[in-house]
Amino acid sequence: MGFLVQLVAFILLPLLASMRAEDTINSSQPCDFRAIFNFGDSNSDTGCMAAAFYPEVSPYGQTFFHEPVGRASDGRLIIDFIAQHLRFPLLSAYINSIGTSYRHGANFAAGSSTIRRQNRTVFEGGTPFTFEIQIEQFNQFKQRTGKFFNQARKNSFRRHFPRPEDFAKAVYTFDIGQNDIAAAINRVGTEDSHAVISDIVEHFAEQVEYLHKLGARTFWIHNSGPIGCLPVAMPVHNNATNHTQEAGYLDQNGCINYQNDMAREFNKKLKNFVLKLRAKFLDASFIYVDMFSAKYELISNANKEGFVEPSEICCGYHKDGYHLYCGNKAMINGKEVFAGSCGDPSKYISWDGVHYTEAANRWIANRIINGSFSDPPLSLTHSCRAVPI
């Protein structure tokens, strides 16, 4: 009898687990998200660095907003398309106090941000708004808005802030780590890259666990994109010939393999961390979004998808070893050069050599929002359903 019970259990338990997983993934009931809280770097900064230091200049923002609006693109970012898909207003930067409303969330992302603290000033490409600081800003935002919401008697004041119960019903999005990888690439040969990447992921893990402690329950986590495919780093824009003939230095798209390999290592360790979180916090949903694969698919099929070669840059001057970034002027070889934009940004993947155009961001957003690159394969609107088995 005991053997029969064990046999039945052996047959049925995997079937039941499979059925539960299928029900979880295919649930037709969308999540009732009330807000978005985003953390990241310039890939999702909607105005933090512009409000804190120097605003973007033309031609940034030219495609959609028709003026600079603090985004490192000609138009909308992936986080903008995420907000619009959830039928929320575009997210305001947390420190942008002019004309903002935080009723449906806030954006803590800041250009140049890293997960770990870096020994760089703002003028050296650094930022005080590390991932740890962004989490503390969120903590302060949650505490203060809760206090003001409960004290306010006028609905006209309350309508600018999320309700206290909305924080548990929000989706928390993350797109950060690429600047940490870039810093590690710049120090290759002087430190143990594997140990550094492990440390970066551990720092990320600590802050995400702290967010869970603060009440976050749905986590939408982007991995790092193919940093070796950023045009500004490609040999074609740097007069670099030392390594280009070496076997395996460049891939079939002209991307730098060892840089992408570091991003892949980060992504692998990040995914392992996400799996551990699912097992540890059974009351939360953790979605791992493979941005690397989504972006690399676009780069690999650029011409087929209606774009020019992925190495081409829409805005900026990158010739003969000179790098003049989008919107700037300089004297080069005795001649004043303005780093303006191309005629049609919608044909380009890269806006300024580092960041993507609105057209590319839309292409990528359309692929990740439906869950095609997610683990588990849940769409954004169902991302609260990733209950651990």
TrEMBL record:
GO terms, molecular function: hydrolase activity, acting on ester bonds
Record carries keyword Nucleotide-binding: no
Keywords: Glycoprotein, Hydrolase, Signal
Pfam families: Lipase_GDSL
Signal peptide: 1-21
Similarity section: Belongs to the 'GDSL' lipolytic enzyme family.
The protein's name: Zeta-carotene desaturase
Organism: Vigna unguiculata
